C-alpha cells in the first residue's frame, strides 16, 4: 500500500511504502488503523514530514535504531508511538511496523521483528 501524497505544493523527494508480508498482511497499516483518530492524524503528519525530509529528518522526529532501521517518534499527551522504517534503493522509505511505547528503550522484539520484515522485503524486491 502506498501512502505518498501527490500534492504539487509540496516537494516530495521520498516515496513512502507500507511493508506487506507475502500473505498480504500489513503490520504497520493494521497498527495505524488501531489508533485513535487524533493519534492517527498525528502519525500521518509525521509520515508526511518523513516523506519531505527523508534522510535529513532527525531528533526529535526520527532516531536511528540499528542496522539501518529508524524509528519515527510521535507523542500525543502521554501516548508515545513509534513507527519503524528503513530506506531502500534511492528515495524509497518502507514503513514496517508500529507500536505504542511503554518503556524508555525500544523493545528488542520490535527491532527484531522489523529486521525480519526488512529482510523479507529485500528478498522479494531485489531488482
Report what the structure shows.
- With 127 residues, the chain is an alpha+beta fold.
- It has one domain: 2-Layer Sandwich (YaeB-like fold).
- It contains 3 helices and 5 strands.
- The chain has helices spanning 27-34, 37-53, 108-124, and strands spanning 15-18, 62-64, 69-76, 79-88, 92-100.
- A 5-stranded mixed beta sheet has the order 1-5-4-3-2.
- A hairpin with a 4-residue loop joins strand 2 (62-64) and strand 3.
- The chain starts with 14 loop residues before the first strand and ends with a helix.
- Mean pLDDT is 88; it is low at 4-9.
Spatial ordering of strands, largest sheet: 1-5-4-3-2
Query: Using only CA atoms, what is the Rg?
Result: 14 Å
CA-based shape = globular
Tell me what portion of residues adopts beta-strand conformation: 25-35%
Order of helices and strands: EHHEEEEH
Mean pLDDT: 88
Which residues form runs of ≥5 with pLDDT under 50?
4-9
CATH architecture: 2-Layer Sandwich
SSE map:
Elements: E1 15-18, H1 27-34, H2 37-53, E2 62-64, E3 69-76, E4 79-88, E5 92-100, H3 108-124
Parallel strand pairs: 1-5
Antiparallel strand pairs: 2-3, 3-4, 4-5
Features:
127 residues, alpha+beta, YaeB-like fold, 5 strands, 27% strand
Question: How would you sum up this structure in a few lines?
Answer:
The chain is an alpha+beta fold. The protein contains three helices and five strands, in the order E-H-H-E-E-E-E-H.
